[in-house]
Amino acid sequence: MKHVNVEQVQKKMGSRLFANTFAKTLFLLATLFGLVVLVVLIYRVIQDGAAWINFDFLTNKLSTDPERAGIMGAILGTLWLMAVVAPVTMVLGVGTAIYLEEYAKKGRIQSIIQTNISNLAGVPSVVFGLLGLTVFARGMELGNVVLAGGLTMALLVLPVVVVSSQEAIRAVPQFLREASFGMGATKWQTVKNVVLPASLPGILTGTILALSRAIGETAPLVVLGIPALLIPLPDSIFDKFTILPVQIYYWTLDSALVAEYTNLAAATILILLIVLFVMNSVAILIRNKFQKRY
Amino acid sequence: MTVLTGKANAKTNNLSASTGSETENKKIVYNTKDLNLWYGEDHALKNINLPIHENEVTAIIGPSGCGKSTYIKTLNRMVEMIPIVRISGEILYRERNIFDKNFQVEDLRTRVGMVFQKPNPFPKSIYENVAYGPKIHGIRDKKILDEIVEKSLKGAAIWNEVKDRLNENAYGLSGGQQQRLCIARALAIEPDVILMDEPTSALDPISTLKVEELVQELKKDFSIIIVTHNMQQAARISDKTAFFLSGEVIEFAETDKIFSTPSDKRTEDYITGRFG
């Protein structure tokens, strides 16, 4: 006797097909929800801010008069901040990744370090702000200048750079290392000539994505006490500074006092989004261009 | 080709399993004495004793998992890249123990080149692949590098195929060409011994034939140790053959003898295809 009864199957066919369509619709709605919210957000921001973006807005200094206020200070501050964050995270992050992947003996200690790095990536950014305030701004008496902010941000994104660099290094096939060692190369020669060139695209992609996260972070710098006051344009890493998201934050806070601040904040958001979009595109381009098949 | 090593003089070795009078006059390059190797608890090589003579092709045959690849990787200490490996006994290379603290592993690997199972060129140009070894050993002079590259590619019988595209990426070559490029890359460090770990297992029959012919050429200047799971290949190209089984050397003798009148029953069973 057969176990699959054709009549039974046909009777249940309707409800099975309904469940199938229902599931598909549910997942489509889930996808659309995020997309719709994003579109609405961008639409509102463009509506509020697009008209305010012009040459003066980009090149003027901060001012209490909305008509004369510009974001030159925040743009320069962001650039200076990157000038600290980029080299510090590259050196520390890639160095750590190379050590963990190529030199460290696989064992308990290595796995403890590994777990901690992964956990560090999940620590809230405001905690890093407190760390920066305690160690760099007060402990090392740097004050709330670019260097202190940059080091804080570097620590914040370091775990991301370490983990993504590790993944890039791990993706370098073992047989390439063997070929190099087989000719009498030292570890460092192998890392320098074989492993790093092969993993560089992955490392760069990870680093750029980490930097774009640093550009968008607000909390650590607010904790660090980045001034909302009118300050001179920063000229070095030892100057006080502000950055785009902090500028957005303070304008939004004060928008109850001056209505036009809402528009200034929206315009700044647009600039920030464009910068992030460009950075992420570059990261994706690098990844696609250098993707190698072994 | 220049031999970079010292001029160690081998005396007649009583461990030699060979019988030919021609062989006894040849120097020993590698002498393995009571070698044992463990992967963790797994005893992979058991009391290996094996003298290997210069300017000969020594084939190592045996079924999968018999330890033949492990053994050849021990000869240039590549096996130590696996962290759980433990070794006892000694391997004398030109009468120096390769496990001696004063014998730098980089030094050993400069004298002993290796060709791997799967062609593994670097994702660099053909030229850069061959120049890699000389460069890491400090040769910067472009003229000398050009000369080494040409000589090595000619030595590996691939010069005519690639001389017009030295700056193209090595990944554009066919599998067989890539493997000969890897042989050229090994020749570029002017080694004394070339270790080959199943160098034709990933190649088609025509490419395999080319590599086999090349091995015959190379033995004039180098000592070659080749692991193969292809018994016909061992019979075709080697002077001596060692038969490995479960981590032990069952029989080591002239290739002719192994394939015509093996003295051990297990060798006979294996070469006649009764197992393996």
Computed CA radius of gyration of chain A, to the nearest angstrom: 25 Å
Mean pLDDT of chain B: 88
Strand ordering within the main sheet of chain B? 6-7-8-3-9-10
Q: Under CATH, the topology of the largest domain in chain A is which? A: MetI-like fold
Largest sheet descriptor of chain A? none
Question: Which two chains touch over the largest interface?
Answer: A-B, 21 and 25 residues
**SSE series of chain A:** HHHHHHHHHHH
**CATH topology category name of chain B:** Rossmann fold
Q: What do the pLDDT scores of chain A average to? A: 89
The multimeric state of the shown protein is heterodimer
* Tally of DSSP β-strands of chain B: 10
Radius of gyration from the alpha-carbon trace of chain B, in angstroms:
18 Å
Number of H/I helices of chain B: 11
**Which architecture of the largest domain in chain A would the CATH scheme give at its second level?**
Orthogonal Bundle
Percentage of residues in DSSP E strands of chain A: under 5%
Give a short account of the largest sheet of chain B: 6 strands, mixed
Range of helix content of chain A: over 70%
